[in-house]
Amino acid sequence: MNLNFVLNDYVLIWNLLFRASISSNIQGFKQKLWKNYRHSYNDLYKEEEHILKDPKNYIPDDDAIFDMVKSSDVYKEVRNETEKYRLELLHTWDTLKKDISKNLKDIIRFDIKLYHVLVVDKKLDVIGMTVPKSRRVNTITWGNRKDSDNYTLAIINIIEHILRKELSNYQVEYKDIVDAIIELAIDNELTSRTLKRSVYLRGDSSLKFLKRQLYPYFLMYLGYSKEEILNRMLEDKIIFELDKYTFERGLATVDLKTFIDFCIKNQRHILKISDLEII
User: Fold this and answer.
1) Strands 115-119 and 3-6: what pairing?
2) How are strands ordered across the β-sheet holding 126-129?
């Protein structure tokens, strides 16, 4: 896997114009633009899909507002901050990519192509946004104010959102199962390997019961023997009665997509509501 972190002026400007204002200066600047160029401003709203289809080669039909924003002092300040943010993400990825790519391939067992991460100001909180109708499948827009707390977790969070996009073709009724497995794979397993400590108690609280039911099969999928599973239970602080489970040895030879299909097909057997426990 590889990530390309890009600062695209059109993407950044569109998000500044049409998302919640990140400062009073930006708000005042937007109001002035809207007051003086109302029709042109409103027409730009529908340009997001066209921009994201091919950001590098996008040419607006009318670039007047884009040019006014680019030449403004408020935009130059935001752009400088966004560039610093992009470089932090890039530096962290360059440091971790060899280890993360190896572990990710080991966990999901299929290739993910190069992804372009279109970086916007992190105060915008644009997390993994894409245009549903766009055919460009290898681009996401990213700006998360929490990233400064830990850029390693920021990279893992980006990868998790990319994997969600890669697996977005599953029917909506299976969304919870798919989300739980993605969280086990990335938010828990990949993060544990990257941080060198178990973080299996991390994640969306609404998925904790479902993950508890999938966890034994996920360890089988990872290729652990019965003896190794007992050690993992203690390490991850998730205890279950292993003898009650059929040991599915074949799961260790499939990729994550096939594992998801297995869990969906066998959900009536796997998801035993009466046995749910908080993890």
Assistant:
1) parallel
2) 3-6, 115-119, 139-143, 126-129
Amino acid at the residue 64: A
d(CA 89, CA 102): 19
Ranges of residues in the chain whose predicted pLDDT is under 70: 131-137, 273-279
**Is 19 in contact with 124 (CB distance < 8 Å)?**
yes
Q: How many CB atoms lie within 10 A of CB 35?
A: 9
Q: Tell me the per-residue pLDDT of 238-268, one tens digit each, with 9 for 90 and over.
A: 999 999 999 999 999 999 999 999 999 999 8
Q: In what helix (H) or strand (E) does residue 26 lie, and over which residues does it extend?
A: helix 24-36
Contacts 24+ apart (CB under 8 A), 165-171: 165/128, 165/130, 165/137, 165/140, 166/112, 167/256, 167/257, 167/260, 170/260, 170/264
The residue written with tokens 């990140």 in the block is 22
